[in-house]
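wait is this the right file?? whatever heres the structure
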């Protein structure tokens, strides 16, 4: 458990400001809300998940997943591996997660997405 926490902490520090400033414009240039949402979802939740399952989830949320996913693939922001699973370079994934962490608001309870177990537990405990 301690090793997992250490690894997760180190992963969060791998994205320095210079790299972030170079990668964030790729997100900023996405054409619409669907592309931006799918990029952030992939960064926070869907890396390593079956592409079809992710697409069904996005379609259920009202996103045009086929076109948006194609746009992200064309821009090399996401890949689908030989097993049909979504993949994202770790620096792009960290960029997406940092974008979410910098959303307006003072803490995790104000973010559009939560993926860290402890933050999820804290938010749920505060709201009950």
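ok assuming it is, sequence goes like this
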């Amino acid at each position: 458990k301690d090793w997992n926490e250490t690894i997760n902490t180190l992963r969060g520090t791998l994205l320095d400001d210079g790299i972030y400033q170079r990668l964030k414009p790729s997100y900023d240039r996405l054409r619409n809300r669907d592309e931006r949402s799918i990029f952030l979802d992939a960064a926070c939740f869907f890396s390593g998940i079956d592409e079809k399952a992710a697409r069904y989830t996005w379609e259920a949320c009202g996103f045009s997943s086929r076109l948006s996913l194609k746009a992200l693939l064309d821009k090399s922001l996401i890949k689908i591996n030989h097993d049909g699973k979504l993949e994202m370079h770790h620096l792009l994934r960290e960029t997406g997660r940092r974008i979410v962490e910098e959303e307006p608001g003072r803490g995790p309870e104000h973010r559009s997405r939560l993926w860290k177990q402890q933050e999820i537990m804290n938010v749920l405990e505060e709201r009950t």
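The two ends are 27 Å apart (CA to CA). so i think its the right one actually
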